Amino acid sequence: TMKFVWTVAWRLMREGRFQSLLILAGVTIGVAVVVYITAVVNGLQANIIEKTLSTQAHIVLKPREDRNRRLIDLPARELMTEIETRTQRENTIDDWERRRQVATGIAGIRTSAAIASGPGFATKGGVRKSVSLIGVELEDYQRIVPLEAKLQAGKVQLPQGTVLIGNELARELGIRPGGRIRLVAATGVAESYTVSGILDFGIKDLSRRWVLMPLRAAQSLLGYRLDVTEIYLQTDDLFEADRLAALAAARTGLDADSWQASNSQLVTALRSQTASTWMIKIFVTLAVALGIASVQVVSVVQKRPEIGILRAMGTPASRIRAIFLVQGGLYGLVGSLLGTSLGAVLSLGFSQLARNSDGSALFPVVITPWLFVFTALIATVVGVLSAYLPARRAAALDPVEAIRG
Question: Model's pTM, two decimal places?
Answer without folding.
Answer: 0.71
